[in-house]
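User: tokens in, sequence out, please.
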């Protein structure tokens, strides 16, 4: 129920069916009422419109094939075309993202970007599976590259000491922001 609004009907039904089959194999009682759970969905994106893009990305990840994407940010008039190696799909604040590595575009010289780009699913205008195979990079570690600092790109990490009061203190204290964080009242 927490993800229904993001998955769309088809993917939600598939996920629910998979869970039902698993529970049946485990011989456990899983008759929990659906009306015990809900999600606050104001301001979220209707991902049912992006089922085809998501399915193509998933197929590319399973078959290790490069995809060609037409990607349009809110600040551009026309989509840009990239070839990418989709590495991980993740959710951050009710938005679905694709963590990837750029792939060589035909007829162009390949230069490594030096980072793994992140693409918002709702900005994919077109996704095409290519025949070009890829391997996951040897040094790829999702946690290391993204999960501890999404949206913050830096070459060198540094420690920060902050003094917070009121609601900000309570909000920050409830969450894990860094593996080595410490709080002092």
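Assistant: Sequence out:
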């Amino acid at each position: 129920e927490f993800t229904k609004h993001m998955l769309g009907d088809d993917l939600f039904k598939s996920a629910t069916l998979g869970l039902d089959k698993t529970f049946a194999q485990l011989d456990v009682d899983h008759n929990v009422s659906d009306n015990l759970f809900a999600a606050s969905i104001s301001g979220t994106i209707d991902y049912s419109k992006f089922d085809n893009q998501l399915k193509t990305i998933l197929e590319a990840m399973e078959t290790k094939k490069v995809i060609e994407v037409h990607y349009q940010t809110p600040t551009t008039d026309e989509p840009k075309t990239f070839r990418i190696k989709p590495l991980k799909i993740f959710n951050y604040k009710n938005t679905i993202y694709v963590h990837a590595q750029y792939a060589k575009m035909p007829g162009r010289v390949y230069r490594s970007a030096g980072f793994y780009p992140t693409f918002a699913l709702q900005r994919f205008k077109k996704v095409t599976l290519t025949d070009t195979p890829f391997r996951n990079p040897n040094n790829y570690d999702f946690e290391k590259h993204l999960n501890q600092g999404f949206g913050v790109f830096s070459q060198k990490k540094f420690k920060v000491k902050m003094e917070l009061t009121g609601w900000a203190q309570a909000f920050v204290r409830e969450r894990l922001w860094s593996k080595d964080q410490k709080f002092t009242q």
